[in-house]
Amino acid sequence: MSSTASPSPSSATTAPAAAPPAAGTRGPGGPLLILAAATLWGTTGTVASFAPAGASPLAIGAGTMGIGGLLTLALAGRSALAVLRSGRRALGWALLGALGIVIYPLAFYTSMAWAGVAVGTVVSLGCAPVFAALLERILDGTRLTRRWAAAAGAAGGGCALLVAAGGAGGGDTARISAGVALGLLAGAAYAGYTYYAGCLIRRGHSSRAVMGALFGLGTLVLVPLFALTSGPLLVTGRGLLVVGYLALVPMCLAYLLFGAGLVRVRASAATVLTLFEPVVAAVLGVAVVGERLGVRGWSGVALVVAGLLVLTVRRR
């Protein structure tokens, strides 16, 4: 998943796998690498739907980010400890960022389980940039623009349509509404941990060190939670395949692809390219999982994506 991003409100769909390139940095293949990463992130919900019966979405989320977090910490090595030792303020930011890392997968995977792969993914990703801008307004005093208001309105309207589409399709409206609410929580947690990661990166730490520190702290909660809730995931081959894929492919390989692509294209262009993720998730949810959105549902998806475009596409 685009599970991580640079700290600006317009880039809450961009993963902090690498530092933003210098202005004007370009190179061949960059857009294709980022699209490949976004495609892999978009498969998370569909793959999670193949978990064994009785597997908890909490276990899937904790296993994905917990195991992936251990790998991220291993790649960072001692540089992650340097982040935590760089002062009380940095430690506070790291703890707040780690809190977001703990909340995000638990809310995200439960949202998809309750509201559907397409709805849960689109809501979580679509509201994240809105929450990022709101967070910067509250903590940094950044002015909210008309574009932000338009994006927030579009995302809110899209979420309402997605809930209405689920109820009209014979689904449990209360469960779908709760799933959408958890998607909003996931988006807020996502925006939160990317914000605090950005604070640490601006202090001079590398993105690898910062993410190693935040994910390392997050694993202190996620790994024990996974051990307590894993159940069918660890006793069946299919469960092991699901967790292994989610931890290794969307969590590690996709971030490596994204980092390589980010060196070759502008960060603003990369942000727009990652919008491919919710599109992939929605299409796979319908084509593979067998979900039905209908006209209202697809209109809701279109509104959320339109809000993302309004917020991320910069005027020349």
From TrEMBL:
Q: Membrane topology type, per the record?
A: Multi-pass membrane protein
Query: What keywords is this UniProt entry annotated with?
Result: Membrane, Transmembrane, Transmembrane helix
Entries under InterPro entries matching the protein: AA-Vitamin_Transporters, EamA_dom, EmrE-like
Q: Does the keyword Transmembrane apply?
A: yes
Q: Where is this region: Disordered?
A: 1-25
**Keyword Membrane appears in the UniProt entry:** yes
Q: Which SUPFAM superfamilies match?
A: Multidrug resistance efflux transporter EmrE (SSF103481)
Q: Where is the signal peptide?
A: none
Principal location class = membrane
Tell me the domain of life: Bacteria
**EamA domain ranges (all copies):** 30-163, 178-312
Question: Where does it reside?
Answer: Membrane
CC per GO annotation: membrane
Looking at the UniProt entry, the stretches that span the membrane are 58-78, 90-107, 113-135, 147-170, 176-197, 209-228, 240-258, 270-289, 295-313
| Family the entry assigns | Belongs to the EamA transporter family.
- Protein name (database record): Drug/metabolite transporter, DME family
Q: Which organism is it from?
A: Streptomyces harbinensis
